[in-house]
Amino acid sequence: MASLSEQINSIMEREMGDIGPFIVKKQSMLIGADPGSIGPNDLPELASKLSEVMKTFGGFEKARKIYNEIKELENLDQIVEGEKSEARRNKMLEDLGRTCIFAGEWEKAFEYFNQLLAEAERNSDRHLMSRYLRRLGFIHQERAEFDQALVYYERALEEAEESGNKNAIAGSLNYLGTVYWNKGNYDVARDFHERAIKNAEIAKDMPALGGAHIGLGNIHSDSNQLEKAIRHYTKALEHLEKTDHLDQVARAYNNLGDTYLQMKDWDKALEQFDKCQELGERGGWLNMKAWGLFNSSEALINLGMFDEARRNLDLSDDILQRIGDKAGIAGMHQNYGRLFQAKRDWDLALRHYDKAIEIFTEINTPSSLAECRKELGLVYKEKGDLEQAKAELRRAANLYHHLGLESLVKMCLKEIDSLG
What we know:
Strand content: under 5%
Radius of gyration: 23 Å
Number of strands: 0
Structural class: mainly alpha
Number of helices: 21
Shape: globular
Order of helices and strands: HHHHHHHHHHHHHHHHHHHHH
């Protein structure tokens, strides 16, 4: 009979091709397990890690498939029940709860974390209560149930403050900031992230500090305050590079590169995307490698390096299609659109922009959708189709208005006025 290692490698290879066993090896090493001799007690945490990777690469569907196949190898709940150490048992329960979040198994995730929360309440352990409340809030956040998420995060913050644990306080504040950013309430989001920084500095919590600065960078980037965004992303890197959170380091470099793109500093943007790709590959986060590749193409297009841009887009296409990263695929199509616009191949440019818009609409990312519609309007303008240009620019202006980004609304309206 095949060993657990062989069975898990087979599952991942079936889903991810030749990169599947590589991912198993990377994630096994991260949890301190021997990739060649995975045991039943490794499965709750390994299932969590693999599901997290699959969620990042391909969404809930891929994560759920991996989780369900691992469950067929061993009874995970039985493994937890058979664990004698309370601490290890709770760790396994938390790992399974996280796995269910990645797999979109919401009711089972609620069950695991409510079980942990009830035990923490019985023991009057406010630190753990705050931790599990954050997890429960995150389940609602993942479902875009932002008001319900706020209820849990606010209670998590109360428990953290009662316990006096600065790490927990900083984490709760960052979660609150992220929800308000998603809701488009940038002023409130900024306040929470700034408070998170104060608490994380006292606790010397590098991941929380990095997360807070990424949050502030995102707010300033969305608000077109690019110098401020760069300062925060740079600060995030100072903190995150002291940690083993390579995916977050790669993400910070990607966001920093994107900001340099907005500033039209193509060389600096390319430097950041190269680092993003390197870290993504080293940490096994192939989605970040793909994002670095297709984002770099925008800089290459503007430098007139069309062949290099096409090569990077094609490489990212290969990775993104294999892993099913819809947000990345949409961004890639947008950059194909930019490439063919620069080459004045209007049919291909419009085809790729339309595909990007279709995906951005499907996954409900209004900021990216607004930018894409604005650019499509400018493609129509350059092509000489002024009525279509006006229509797309109006759609972009409406989206920017909904997001409260009035400076970008004015920019779209100015373009419309210029078309007569």
